[in-house]
Specification:
Blueprint (H helix, E strand, L loop, with lengths): L4 H67 L2 H23 L7 H29 L1 H89 L14 H40 L4 E4 L5 E4 L1 H6 L4 H4 L4 H5 L2 H13 L3 E10 L2 E13 L5 E10 L1 H36 L8 H31 L8 E3 L1 H18 L3 E6 L6 E3 L1 H17 L6 E9 L2 E8 L32 H11 L4 E6 L3 E9 L8
Parallel strand pairs: 7-9
Antiparallel strand pairs: 1-2, 1-5, 3-4, 4-5, 6-8, 9-10, 10-12, 11-12
Helix pairs in contact: 1-2, 1-4, 2-3, 3-4, 4-5, 10-11, 11-14, 12-13, 13-14
The chain binds adenosine-5'-diphosphate.
Adenosine-5'-diphosphate (ADP) binds next to helix 13 and helix 14.
Length: 615
């Protein structure tokens, strides 16, 4: 049994070569036999005919010699007769050795006896001539020799005829044989063609069948049927290939099963985690269609997952504000954004910190969003209690503090009698602390009002230089007293801003008073307004002590003060927190750029009139 494909193909070609060889050899043998037969027969007959012809010529010349002997010249006649006798016998010898036809041998025998008779008669003729004379010889020639001469010629004619006939018969036989050979060669050729075609087809199909099976199996596997195996029994190269292919498919299937199984377990785990998150959560696709909701979401928003799956977000949540926030986050391309919303549902009123996180696929294209509704209702409530408490306390502090400050005023002006130096210093200390406490109370009240949304903002269109002018004016004198330089510069034709005049004035007052607080004699404070990128940038810059890097963000938090080293706190730590709240209420931003011992810049932005962002 041949195992290799190479061997099988070689066998196929070998069998075809053998078939061709059989056809070739058969044709050659036939042609050879045919030509041999023709040659054999034709040449033998031709020789006999030729010999008969030569013998006829010889005997005719002998006949003439006999007549010459009788009537003309005895010697010459005898010589001529004898010479032709030799000639006759030479050809007779050829003929005797070339008997091929049936009856030819009898004819040769008869020829021999008639010719022998004829020659003997010539001997007799010689005797009669010499004994009885010419006339008797002529008489003997005519009566005895001539009939024997005719007999011999007749035998020769018959001999020639029998060979001629045989020659024609040989020709017919050769034609017949040629035809037979042609048919035989044709038959074998036909057999070789049919056989060769059948063998080629059979083997080609046999060789190609495993490849066809392998191709079909590959197609099925490509379509996902990983359990398919190529059923190939051959042990040749294709068999080996299919065995390796089947091994590979098995490995692939095992891998897929394990990966899939693992993935399924992980997916179910993640799903269980998502479902059990106590805050409502939904997952949206890029068309804002709901593709997953968790249990808390179903409960609070009173929606069933199976009803709202594949529906638009607004069909499930019906809150345009939240939807605008989600879509703006999605369009901004930011990874995550969060904002607090008040949402009222049948199940209650909630404050949700809505956290939108965009999901990207492996090509970094946005593929959806996760929206977490972090329930901060309780926090808000606690904050409200705290704010209300601070507001109440602050309010309660305000009246007694005013009385204390007024009292110290009266005492300082010595309305209650003369004071010695110690008493004056003591009352001055009481006054300073009371004023600081009063500022703290005022700042706290302002902050709680803004945070609780109770503060009323009157947004109107103003020229920013008017606001700054108004805010700076009260500080010129103070700056002069403290020997500090206070400047204000503003671009010409700067666009108007939308702002609450009083609140922005308050912001500037705070920033300028801080600048004065944290600078030394000879320092500079510059206030500047300019238009940049569709916004108005207002900067309060000083050449004071500066703020350490780690504090530039923190100082906007409540009660944060830089108390590092030589720095001593001189305020309440609330001013910048209020400033930040006010700027954010204007949809602006505020930040600090500072370098220690070089100075600080407080920069905030305001919207240009007519270009306000949503508040
Ligand atoms: P305070 O009433 O303490 O000034 P603020 O909130 O206004 O409270 O300021 C917070 C802290 O920021 C200050 O205590 C001070 O340390 C720092 N600070 C504010 N402005 C300046 C400034 N221009 N230069 C240096 N430090 C500053």
């Amino acid at each position: 049994m041949i195992k290799t494909l190479k061997g099988k193909i070689s066998v196929l070609f070998l069998s075809l070569v053998l078939l061709i060889a059989v056809v070739g050899i058969t044709a050659s043998i036939n042609l050879f036999n045919l030509s041999g037969a023709i040659d054999g027969l034709m040449i033998a007959n031709y020789k006999s005919i030729n010999a008969a012809s030569k013998m006829t010529e010889a005997i005719e010349r002998q006949d003439s010699a006999a007549l010459t002997y009788i009537n003309v010249d005895v010697k010459k006649g005898r010589e001529l007769f004898t010479a032709n006798n030799e000639e006759f016998l030479k050809w007779y010898e050829v003929d005797v050795n070339n008997v091929t036809e049936k009856g030819e041998r009898d004819l040769v025998q008869s020829l021999k006896s008639s010719y022998t008779n004829y020659v003997n008669l010539f001997l007799d003729l010689q005797e009669i001539r010499s004994r009885s004379g010419v006339e008797a010889a002529n008489e003997f020639y005519n009566s005895k020799m001539t009939p024997e001469f005719i007999n011999t010629k007749e035998d020769l004619r018959k001999l020639s005829l029998i060979n001629e006939k045989a020659m024609f018969e040989s020709k017919d036989l050769a034609t017949e044989n040629a035809k037979k050979s042609m048919y035989l060669v044709l038959g074998i050729s036909l057999f070789a063609i049919v056989g060769g075609y059948a063998i080629s087809r059979f083997f080609t199909n046999r060789f190609l069948q495993p490849i066809t099976i392998l191709t079909q199996t590959m197609k099925l596997i490509k379509a996902g049927e990983l359990n398919k195996q190529a059923d190939i029994q051959t042990r040749d190269e294709i068999g080996e290939l299919s065995t390796e292919f089947n091994n590979m498919t098995r490995r692939l299937q095992q891998y897929e099963q394990s990966t899939l199984g693992q993935l399924l377990i992980e997916k179910n785990k993640s799903l269980a985690i998502v479902k059990s998150i106590s805050d409502p959560m939904i997952v949206l696709d890029t068309d804002y269609r709901i593709i997953l909701v968790n249990n808390a979401f179903e409960r609070i928003f009173s929606v069933a997952e199976d009803v709202f799956l594949n529906r638009h977000f607004l069909e499930g949540v019906r809150n345009g504000e939240v939807f605008d926030f989600i879509s703006s986050t999605f369009k901004s391309g930011d990874e995550t954004q969060q904002k607090i919303f008040f949402i009222s549902r049948n199940s209650g009123n909630y404050y949700f910190n809505v956290i939108v996180t965009t999901v990207k696929d492996s090509n970094a294209n946005l593929s959806g969003m996760i929206v977490l509704f972090q329930n901060v209702t309780q926090l808000k409530e606690v904050e409200k209690i705290r704010t209300d408490f601070i507001a109440t306390i602050s309010h309660e502090f305000k009246t007694p503090l005013t009385s204390i400050i007024m009292g110290t005023d009266v005492l300082q002006e010595e309305g209650m009698g003369q004071l010695n130096a110690d008493q004056k210093q003591f009352i001055q200390a009481i006054r300073e602390d009371s004023e600081r406490l009063s500022k703290l109370v005022n700042d706290l009240l302002e902050l709680t009002r803004i945070e609780s949304g109770k503060a009323v903002f009157k947004f109107e269109e103003y020229a920013i230089d008017d606001i700054i002018e108004c805010a700076v004016k009260p500080f010129y004198q103070l700056a002069q007293q403290q020997e500090k330089n206070l400047y204000f510069s503003c671009e010409d034709d700067i666009p108007h801003v939308v702002a609450d005049f009083e609140k922005i004035t308050w912001v500037l007052n705070n920033l300028i008073s801080n600048a004065l607080k944290y600078t030394e004699i000879g320092d500079e404070i510059v206030i500047n307004a300019e238009e940049k990128a569709g916004m108005i940038y207002i900067t309060v810059k000083d050449s004071g002590r500066g703020i350490p890097k780690e504090f530039t963000d923190k100082i906007f938090d409540k009660f944060v003060q830089v108390k590092d080293g030589d720095f001593e706190a001189r305020g309440t730590g609330l001013g910048l927190a209020v400033v930040k709240e006010i700027i954010e209420a204007h949809n602006g931003e505020i930040w600090c750029e500072s370098e220690l011992d070089v100075g600080s810049s407080f920069i905030f932005t305001l919207n240009i009139a007519g270009k306000e962002q949503n508040r």
